[in-house]
Sequence to fold (344 residues):
Amino acid sequence: MILDGRSAPIVLILTSIAWREAWKYRDRAYRYCLHDIGHAWQALALAARAMGCEVSATGIFPDDEVTQNCRLAEDEWPMLICEMRGATIPLREPDATETVWNGGQANRLSEETIVYPSIDGIHNATKLSKLDTSAAATQGAQADSGEVRLPPASAQRTFGETARMRRSALNFVGGAQSMSLPQLAAILAAASQPFYADFAGARFIQLYLYAHRVDGLPPGVYRHWPESAKLELLRIGDQRVAAAGLSLGQDLAGNACLAFSMIGNLELATQIHGNRGYRYVHFEAGAIGHRLYLAAEALGLAGTGIGAFYDDDVHRYLSLTPEQGQVVYHFAIGYPVPDLRVNA
Ligand SMILES: Cc1cc2nc3c(=O)[nH]c(=O)nc-3n(C[C@H](O)[C@H](O)[C@H](O)COP(=O)(O)O)c2cc1C
Fold:
């Protein structure tokens, strides 16, 4: 097997090619890469769960060695290793002597490569060597096991329907239609379920909510405390203009029933994992985002991940001290406007 003699019937290496995001998002692209990995991880883990399999993720690995073993090109970076186990995977026993490489040819997006030194810089600063990974193992970065469930009985749709139907809302129907408090509770419960990964012993993301239209919840800003399943009111009043403004002026964050700022405790992450913790905070945000997508969809709503926001303004608006963390991702949930590209 690719890493340290571990074996699982299927091992998937999730990789990023940063310049494929950088043409659009420039320096900020590295964050999008990490979020995307978090989304892909959860898409995989939840689909595997629906098939009766388990996915465990490994973020603590020596980058260069995995790159070499997987024969990745220089610009393709391994980010997360997902091992899938389960009785229902119909596989023949691999022949130890047989290695089959199915190479592909990526389509060419541009004639020239624009270098973003800060992307290379942050990637290199968050790399691990073989030495680092053995140190991390002895520090006891814990695997957190646990059930990952989609929202309970109130969901009308099966997992398969939900996953196939999920789309990002282009915008939300503003106006009177609201979501219910049980729907919100189910969505938050889905987001709070444990993750199964070697870096998931501690959670780094706390959810802040801009509640616009949730029955029984006065409009305002709330902080979510998952252990007690409670919402703490931080600011009362209509947040639609603020949520849209903070989300780079994107109307969808105000037209939704609900928007989120995901606040990442980067300090805790780096205390536990060193620089590598930066990646894990963003993986967790993406993974939560994916659960929000699926939970919203299962309940007849829709979601949209929002990577574009004004970082410092969010910190000021939420009165965050540096110890409380930094904003790493936004998300909105509500009733989607029809998307003629997919519903025509
Ligand atoms: C990390 C991330 C950031 C995103 N940021 C935005 C955003 O700022 N504004 C927006 O309208 N959509 C945003 N999206 C939604 C994407 O545009 C959408 O996921 C993409 O077009 C693919 O569509 P799909 O989700 O329906 O498959 C984001 C999605 C992700 C995963």
Summary: The longest helix spans residues 29-50. Confidence is low (pLDDT under 50) at residues 138-153.
